[in-house]
Design goal:
The chain is mainly beta and about 260 residues long. It has helices spanning about 10-15, 15-20, 30-35, 120-130, 245-250, and strands at about 40-45, 55-65, 75-80, 95-100, 110-115, 135-140, 145-155, 155-165, 170-180, 180-190, 195-205, 205-220, 225-235, 235-240.
Length: about 260
């Protein structure tokens, strides 16, 4: 699944920054591998001060690529340096990045793991396992033997049925990939702090298309659910409709006729 990041106007970015910085990141690195366009390991050779473009600029020495096509062994990337979401990569440190590299930016809600972190070796191990697999159906587990995912691999790429799990065994993602590209029907469940989002729809050439069903439910005793139909064209939302009774009446009710007042 391709992760979609909406670029908002600066005013809205700043006014909502305290909320936007609360990215719900977890340890599901296998999920981020499936979601990201690029996954690679690199050392930060240089890191600039905050520039006129309101960015830190980095020169990376790319050591290994696990997903996506990067040109050459050197890469220039940027991170934000003016909002409260800003972070700075450390010079001479090695990271594994899971990113879409939109305009060569590393987003604050995109996953990265530094070499000194405890999970770095296990992350590198499963990435190497995927990269070096010619043809197999892999089961990926964490250090506690919890199943993280089941995926068909051909020539180091997702190719066939893919299932990703939460630690509680809930299916997080289920769908088909063809040569690394999501294709056909998908189901995605996102567990948040107080809500659960369920998405169901189709991918075509790696982009969401047509109508997707989106169900949001409260994770509490109320169990309240909201339904909507979300319409995509080439991965972008072009229309969405809530499916509750009030919204349906408003959408489909015939327009009221104007009653002309007759004067006697």
């Amino acid at each position: 699944m391709k992760r979609t990041f909406t670029v908002l106007a600066l005013f809205f970015m700043i006014s909502a920054v305290s909320f936007a910085c609360r990215c719900q990141m977890d340890e599901a690195k296998l999920f981020y591998f499936v979601e990201a366009k690029y996954v690679f390991r690199a050392e930060v050779k240089s890191a600039s001060d905050c520039g006129d473009n309101n960015k830190y600029t980095y020169e990376l020495d790319v050591e290994d690529v696990y997903k996506g096509d990067l040109e050459g062994d050197e890469l220039t990337v940027y991170t934000d340096c003016i909002t409260s979401c800003a972070f700075k990569l450390e010079e001479d440190k090695t990271y594994i990045f899971f990113t879409d590299l939109i305009n060569n930016n590393i987003g604050f809600c995109e996953y990265k793991i530094e070499k000194k972190e405890a999970e770095y070796k296990s992350t590198q191990a499963f990435l190497n396992k995927i990269k070096n697999t010619r043809l197999d159906f892999l089961t990926i587990q964490d250090s506690k033997k919890n199943k993280l995912g089941e995926l068909q691999i051909r020539e180091g790429k997702l190719d066939g049925l893919v299932k990703i799990y939460y630690p509680n065994k809930t299916v997080r993602l289920r769908g088909m990939f063809i040569k690394g590209v999501p294709s056909g029907g998908f189901e995605i469940t996102l567990l948040r702090r107080k809500k659960k989002d369920f998405w169901q729809g189709d991918y075509e050439n790696g982009e969401r298309v047509g109508m997707w069903i989106h169900i949001t439910s409260n994770i509490d005793e109320s169990g309240k659910k909201d339904y909507e139909h979300v319409f995509y064209e080439e991965g972008e939302i072009v229309e969405r409709h809530l499916m509750d009774q009030e919204s349906q009446i408003e959408r489909y009710a015939p327009p009221k006729k104007e009653v002309k007042e007759v004067k006697e």
